[in-house]
Amino acid sequence: MKKFIPIILMSALLAACGGGGDTDKIGEASTVFNMLGKNDRIEIHAFDDPQIQGVTCYISYAKKGGLKETVNLEEDASDASVSCVQTAPQISFNEAEIAKPQKIFKKGSSFIFKTLQVMRYYDPARKVFSYMVYSDKVIQGSPKNSMDAFSCYTGAPLDAAKVSVQPNQQIHGSCIVTLAQK
């Protein structure tokens, strides 16, 4: 049994560092040819904001290929970009649940120590969401980052006569906002 413990620990580490959550791979562009293993590339993934119905974010990031990727020992560059768009006729969210900044995406970018993250920030006065992508490392992170802002007033405004809202909800542009209880 003791000889299986290192294998189990290594499998757990590889699983923790691997995926980027619930994303759909949209495509990729090769940037550097590698004789062994996959080419270096830029990958594009899409994921829905988990607390804001009707908003999808698209993230592109550099992915290091080669032999190191084959054995999961590569360290990806800190270059990434994010863009979020309305993907439904209306957007709905609970203002109390999104008031504080929140990590909505996390993906391992190296064997153990580096991650790529997307944070969501909310500006309640303007009904605007800001999404920032950055990478961090246990010892030293990177100042490279990218951000996108999305407003409730970007899309077509909802017709209040055609949309049923609860007493604790308000319509702001294309958003139905559930207000915090007082």
From TrEMBL:
InterPro entries from the UniProt entry: Uncharacterised_CreA
Gene Ontology cellular-component terms listed: cytosol
Pfam families: CreA
Protein name per Swiss-Prot or TrEMBL: CreA protein
Source organism per UniProt: Neisseria dumasiana
Lineage: Bacteria, Pseudomonadati, Pseudomonadota, Betaproteobacteria, Neisseriales
